[in-house]
Amino acid sequence: MLKLFAASFGLLLLSGCASYGVIDNTVITTDSASAQPYSMGEIHGRGSSEDVGLVLAFSGGGTRAAALAYGVLEELRDTTVMIDGQPRRLLDEVDTISSVSGGSFTSAYYGLYGERTFDDFKADFLTQDIEHELVLGLFNPLRWFGSEGRTEMAVELYDKQVFHGATFADMQRAGGPLILINASDLAYGVRFSFVQEYFDLLCSDITTFPVARAVTASSAVPILFPPVVLKDYYDCPLVGKPDWLEKSAELTSSNPAMEQIIRGLETYYDQDNRKYAHFVDGGITDNLGLRAVYEVIGLAGGPQTFYRKNGIQYPRYAIVISVNASTDPEPEMNQTNKKPSLGETIGSMSSVQLHRYNDATLEIMRRSLNKWTQEMSTPDRPSTPYFVKLGFIDIEQPEDRSFFNAIPTSFNLSEEQVDRLIEAGHELLRNNSVYQRLLADLGGAQVSSR
Prior knowledge:
The chain is an alpha/beta fold. Helix content is 47%, strand content 14%. It has helices at residues 2-15, 30-34, 62-77, 102-113, 117-126, 130-138, 141-144, 149-163, 168-174, 196-200, 211-219, 243-251, 256-266, 291-299, 303-309, 342-376, 398-405, 415-431, 433-442, and strands spanning 26-27, 52-58, 79-83, 86-89, 94-100, 178-185, 191-193, 204-205, 228-231, 276-280, 317-324, 384-391, 446-447. Strands 2, 5, 6, 7, 9, 10, 11 and 12 form an eight-stranded mixed beta sheet that branches. Strands 4-3-13 form a three-stranded antiparallel beta sheet. It has a two-stranded antiparallel sheet with strand order 1-8. Helix 3 (62-77) crosses helix 18 (415-431). The longest helix has 35 residues, at 342-376.
């Protein structure tokens, strides 16, 4: 990442050109407005049991996050439980995957290709030297004086190498869980999910939008990559201000945090100042991918309203699995009395803020899940919460924990690092006490050998 940053900064100084975001989102038409959208109304996985509500959240962290998340998917694939008297893989019970940054590569790939993920994703992404390809592109003279910039180079690379020209229409046809790819609105600090409900705020049609561009937005580190830009077609008469946004303002009037979110979303209707929206790394507003889940339920007015609106029965087993690939390496400054460099100082400050924000997010999610299941429970149909938190802090052996904490946030890892991260995803999930309790409660759990 440092090499990529240095190359980007050097070429930026050489070119002196302004960079303009390519507009690739289309306005809603009469045909697209009447079509089935890629929507949060599909938050309950097609084909999954209504007894089980299973949400996965994949954090940021480059290829490190993508590989750890992939290991968790494999473990869920290999685990069979008894549901409604029938053996079912836990992977098939996943309703929603919410992701940011590096985790979005795994979630989007699985959303598009399902079982093919376990044959192709490692070769298509995890073991690719994506950074090398990006640096080569930066030194292409044809790009030095262009106006499209580094982000378009990343979109093209991800589209060709990983997502093969797919759009959200392909994601919708795939028939798997709902994939919430999350980015951050640079101007207002609003978290933005690539689903039709949020595209409605721009009066835009998500079905034609490239998956590679959404994942680029989710992982576009500011300064290193310019934002992904979407046009705000705010004056489109086919949609207007969505009912869910109007109702959310009423339902959340006593919740200051939700009121702040709604104020941010309503800026998309500021016709005088909002012509475009600029999206960058989703980790800025939520590095764990959990706040998207919290906000979806909160903006609906709570779980009862949400499930009733979508015609879904409350789950008896309400499960959230948080896959956190953030690291906590030992600072090198601790080994010397030399003054830390500017880079070390900024990195340390960022790390402290990230970990504190992550801790706050985890606690909000834990409390909310407990509260939601209490609200959903009835005497004849109790709902039980299972909040499964996975992270490198849970690795018992100090030398193994040090190995994972030393893996950088990059898109170029060794095959050993990738393989060990995948295995860590398996072991962290398998050994988690809350997950073990879930398997015991479901009964008859079996894990196939690989």
